[in-house]
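Technical annex, item 7. During the second reporting period the consortium partners agreed on a shared format for inverse folding records so that results from different sites could be compared directly. Each record opens with the tokenized structure and is followed by the designed sequence. A conforming record, contributed by the partner at site C, is shown below for reference.
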């Protein structure tokens, strides 16, 4: 049997374009479907150096680092499912970045991952529609939105903001998140504020590993390694922009946590009426969560 691929089925790259987001269960599923079909020569993960509009504020000097982290989290996630990829950090303007990426890589398809109803510029144009006009008709374009607004009308869904850096891949925490999702549908937004105690490379790997484990259980989650926000501001910004039903703050058990020393839980509790839970990793599952805000757990 010949191994020659017909010209009509020429292997070409698949371009995964991340605008302000990282990972995503639906994005992973789409990439797996295309790579397993055998017609993709390479998976390219690209992100513009733009300022996220939801969930965090990033210093301009950190825009490159933030975009790189989004790319690396997504690449690590793909690798967990046996998908090799290469990464690119591009121009801050998403429309210019996409045009450059298409010209440079000549992909067969663009998987465009962005927040639902993302708009940009003075005219507030719909970014997905502008991106589609840039790609088509020469390149197939598929928009895979991260739906934040749509979640607000789902009464059966609990959206939990998880704040974890050193413990983001702790077995206790991951088990806890999976257990909760068996009782009621959950969407997790995981933010990992910068820590001098943990290298960014490790946070990227750990965050990607946690997302992969949740996706294997068909649990929706997105994650973001925060480049410059201190923990309280990271939580405040996320609360302002996401629909949040509960906030879960994770630390290791029995250690002198800087987050606890700065009364992070108490400060967060003052700015929200949602339940705030403190999860200590390293204890038995029945004992490691203590609710510190009124309302208890879902």
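Designed sequence (site C submission):
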């Amino acid at each position: 049997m010949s191994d020659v691929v017909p010209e009509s089925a020429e292997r070409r790259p698949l371009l995964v374009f991340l605008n302000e987001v990282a990972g995503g269960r639906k994005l992973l599923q789409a990439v797996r479907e295309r790579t397993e079909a055998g017609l993709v020569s390479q998976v390219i993960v690209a992100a513009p150096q733009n300022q996220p509009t939801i969930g965090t504020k990033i210093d301009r000097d950190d825009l490159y680092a933030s975009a790189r982290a989004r790319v690396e989290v997504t690449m690590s996630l793909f690798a967990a499912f046996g998908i090799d990829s290469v990464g690119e950090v591009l121009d801050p303007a998403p429309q210019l970045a996409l045009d450059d990426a298409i010209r440079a890589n000549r992909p067969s398809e663009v998987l465009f991952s962005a927040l639902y109803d993302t708009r940009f510029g003075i005219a507030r144009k719909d970014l997905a529609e502008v991106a589609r006009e840039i790609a088509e008709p020469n390149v197939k374009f598929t928009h895979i939105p991260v739906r934040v607004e749509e979640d607000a009308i789902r009464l059966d869904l609990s959206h939990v903001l998880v704040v974890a850096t050193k413990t983001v891949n702790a077995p206790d925490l991951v088990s806890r998140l999976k257990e909760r999702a068996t009782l009621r549908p959950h969407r997790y937004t995981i933010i990992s504020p910068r820590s001098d105690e943990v290298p960014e490379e490790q946070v990227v790997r750990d965050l990607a590993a946690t997302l992969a484990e949740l996706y294997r259980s068909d649990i929706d989650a997105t994650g973001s390694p925060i480049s410059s926000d201190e923990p309280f501001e990271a939580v405040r910004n996320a609360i302002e922009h996401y629909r949040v039903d509960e906030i879960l703050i994770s630390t290791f058990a029995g250690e002198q946590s800087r987050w606890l020393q700065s009364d992070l839980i108490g400060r967060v509790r003052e700015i929200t009426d949602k339940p705030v839970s403190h999860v200590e990793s390293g204890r038995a599952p029945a004992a490691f969560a203590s609710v510190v805000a009124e309302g208890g757990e879902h």
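The chain has two domains: 10-146, 150-291. Residues 10-146 form a domain with the Rossmann fold fold (CATH 3.40.50.620). All partners now use this format for quarterly exchanges.
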